User: Fold this.
Amino acid sequence: ADVKAGRAKAVQCQACHGIDGLAKIPEAPNLAGQTEEYLVKALKDFKSGARQNDMMTLIAKPLTDADIANLAAYYHSLGKQ
Amino acid sequence: ADVKAGRAKAVQCQACHGIDGLAKIPEAPNLAGQTEEYLVKALKDFKSGARQNDMMTLIAKPLTDADIANLAAYYHSLGKQ
Assistant:
C-alpha cells in the first residue's frame, strides 16, 4: 500500500475525519493510528453495503481496492507520531 | 456516564480491544480516545443488528443503555493521556 497516495485520496475524508485522522464532527470516528486491517474491512463493508451509513456508502462506492489499501495505510500511519 | 463503571465493564472487551483501548488482534479497532458519540452508535448498532459482526453481536446484546454510555465514556477517556 502507498501511504502518499492514501494521503492524496484522503482529501475526500478530511471534512469529517481530518487529514490528521482526528474527527472534526462528533459522530465521525478518529482514524489516526487505527489498525489497518480494520480500516480496510470498514471501507469494503461500506462499499459492499454490508455496513450502512448514508455518507460512507456514497464515499466508498467508487473506491478501488488500491484506494482502500492506500487510505487504510495512510490513516494507520498517523498513529506513529 | 460513569467512566469507572465503564472500566469495570470493559473486562469483557480487553481480549480484543485492550483495557488500554489498543487492539490486541489485527481485525479489532483501537478504541482509546475514540469519539464518544461514535462508540455509543457502534454498540447500539451491534446490539440492534443494524451492524453485523459475529463477536460484537454476541457481546453487545446484553448491554444496557447505561453500560453502553459507560463503556463509551471509558474508552473515550483513554485518549487524553
